[in-house]
Each structure stands twice: as structure tokens, then as C-alpha cells.
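Suppose you are handed a protein chain with no further information: no name, no annotation, nothing but its sequence. What can you learn? This example shows the usual starting point.
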Amino acid sequence: MVWLAPLGALLCALRPGSGAADPEVLPPALPRRCPAPCVCAADVLSCAGLGLGDPPAALPPTAADLDLSHNGLRRLRPGWLAPLPRLRALRLGHNRLDALGRHVFANASGLTLLDLSSNALRALGRHDLDGLGALERLLLFNNCLAHLDARSFHGLPALRHLYLGSNELASFSFHHLHGLGAAHLRTLDLSSNQLGPLSVPELAALPTFLKNGLYLHDNPLPCDCRLYHLLRRWRQRGLGAVRDFARQYTCLAFPVPGSQVRFFEHSRVFENCSAASVPNLEQPEEQLDTQVGRSLRLYCNTSAPAVRIAWVSPQNELLVAPGSRDGSIVVLADGSLAIAKVQQRHAGVFVCLASGPHLHHNQTLEYNVSVHFPRPEPEAFNTGFTTLLGCAVGLVLVLLYLFAPPCRACGRCRHTCRRRWPRTPSPLQELSAQSSMLSTTPPDAPSRKASVHKHVVFLEPSRRGLNGRVQLAVAEDFDLCNTVDLPLKAGSETASSTGSEGLMMTQSA
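A reasonable first move is to predict its three-dimensional structure. Written in C-alpha cells, the prediction is:
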């Protein structure tokens, strides 16, 4: 019976459920399934157009893109996005949301796109968008927004594109942009609202990259001379927001809703604006020219000491101390920007953003940097030596022209003719087409004895046959130097047809 005790202990050890279970042996927890009315594809969860009144209760944690558009959502409960740690895009457009509330997006710290367009939102509170620290694109167009809290977007430091078009906003503060950071913002759409008078100095103080994406068209703006000059300058500079929608920029000529005119097509409304005193609304860009490989230093000179200074590069990179990501640009302790070796990628507009309690508003300074390749230095030469060489070459050419004939035979012929015969007019040049002449006296030639019995008769050439031309009869002993003894005869056609017409030479014994 002694052996029964160890056997019982062994059976107790082998009893199922006794002792601590090995965690590696337990089966893994099953992942949550895709909600029945929705469609799941990898990390995309689409529940669009299903007529849902509330978001699905069970959401798979793998979803990075959630589409709940074109439904009937009215409210969003706090913490409803907690099961979605990977969420990057949330689409809630075309629903019936009229308010948001606190902690609605408390668990969406990684969200980069939020679409709330085509809803019934009437206002944005200070804490409605809390928790969206990584948000880059916010779509709020086609709502009923009439009020924005002064710090509605204070919790959105990374926001780059904000769309507030087609709402009922009557005012917008460009002084602090309702808590937006101007360093990252590139698009601000305020078109198709009810905006009235705007602060022109605040508009002029915005950086150029934000002016290029500031859409103010289709608003009942007043026909103000300062605003007219500012928008016209933006159009002349080629800023896309004004250039692309120039015909849709309207203003009220009178405080009557039906007196809208187009800014750039009714010049008579702004006839007196040219004489109005319009001070420098915008500080012009400072043009800087430099060469590749040189150093460059930019200073952010503000009207008052600034507490915080940041720069924006031509590639839209926010530059704070110590500098750029690639290390080519350094932001120094005094706020200035330094580039040790300028490259082609550094060409463009550098914007300095300065803020501080003593500044009336955030000031911006812009530097338009042009980078060129260095020109090769011209080779040095001796001007005196070049002049002397040119004179020598010219003298040699003159001597060659005077003493070196181009052809020996022609030179010998000219010399012989000049020695044998004086220069006399050619008999052919003394021909007269209107008279006949008989010459019996040949020229005196010492080297050739001419006969006194030669008779040369010059008659008027016939209009037929040779058409007034004289034909030369060249003998074998033709002397190029003695043109006087050149035998002449009339053409055969003329002799046979006219008999006595033409030129005829007779020889007497």
C-alpha cells in the first residue's frame, strides 16, 4: 500500500486544469471580424452609403482608412476611435453632424486626413479638434459654419491644408489664424462665404506661400482701394489663388447686396484709387544673387525684438535651430540663417517668421535668392602686342597687293602692251550705229607692217540676223596685245540674206 501514495500524487499532477497553464500553449485570441454591412480590404474599412445612424460598434484594429461618408450620422460619442490605433484617414462627409464636442477625436493622434465636409456643423469650439496633433488636411467645406472660436485650430500644429469654403463665415482673423501655425499652413480656402471688411495689413503680413493658397473669391468684400491694390499686386505676381479665380473676385460698390462688381473688370469703380494714398502694404522681397560654392547669410531684421524666429526654405521645410535635415542650412542663435556652400537647390524664396509680444503681429521677411554658376575668367592678353601684330599683318597685305601680281602671264602681257603701244581707245568702242566710216589708215605698229591697201567698211548692222551684234573673225595668228588688227566679218546668215549689210573686210592686191 506504500506505493499508492506516489501513484496518487502522479495522477493529481496529470489531472487536466490543475496547476498553472503555460501561456505559450494557449491559443491566440481571434481578431475582430469586419462589421457585417461594411467592406474590408486589407487596412481599408468602407461603410459608405449604408444609411447608418451610428458608427459600427465593433471596428477591426487593423483599419488605417475608415470611410463612413454618405450615411445619416448625427452624433459621435467620445472615445469611439479607441479600437483603431492605426487610423490615418477618417471620412465623415455627407452626414448630418451638427456638432462635435470634446474628446471625440481623443484617440486619433495619428490621423492625417479628416473629412467633415457636407454636414450641418454650425460652430467649432475650442476643444472640438483636440487630439489631432498629426492632422495635415482638414475638410470643413459645405457646412453651416458661422462661428469659429479664437483658438479653434490651436491643437493642430501640423495642419497644412484647411478648407472652409461654402460656409456662412462673416469674419476671419488673420492676426492669429484662430490658433493656426502659419509656418506649416499652405492652403486656406475661405471662398463662398459672407466675408465683409478684411484687415488689409494682416493680409499683407502673411508669408508668400500662404498668399499663394489663400482663396477669398466669391465673397461680398467691400470695394476698398487698399484691398484692390493688394489683390491686383498679387495677381501681377502670379499668385495662383488670385490668378486662377480672377473673374470670381467680387466686391460691393455700395452697401447693397445687389451692387456686386468684379474686382478686375470694372475699373471705373476704382478710378479714384490711383490718387489715393496707399502706403507700402507689402514689404518687397529682397533680391539676392550668389554663386555656387559661396557662403550666404540671411538676417531676420524685425521692427522689435522677436521671441521666436523660424525660417521656411524654398522646399517648404521649416527651419529652426540647429538647421535643415541635410545639414546644409544652419539657424544660428541670433536667428540668422547661414549657408556655408550655396548649391542650386538653395535657389528660391526664404521666409523668416518672427513672433513676440512687442510685435504688432507676426512679421515675415522674404529673401528671393538666385544662384548662378561662376563665369570663367577671361584669359589675360597684352594689348600692345596685339596692336603691333595687327599693324604688321596689315603692312604685309598692302605690300603683297602692290608688288605681287596675282598672275604672271597677265602681268607680262600688261607690261608688253604698255611698252609696245600707247593706250588708245578701242576701235570697237568708236563704232557708230547711225553712221558709216571708212578707215584707210591703220595704226602705226613698229613690229607689224600693215598694208595701206586694206579697206575696212563699217556698216549699220541689220535688225535681222545678228540683232545688231558684230561677229569677230579670229585668225590663227591672233595677237592678244594688238587689238587694232583684229579682223572682223559679218555673220554668214546676214551675208547670205542681206547681201551688202553687216561688216565686211576687203583685201586689194
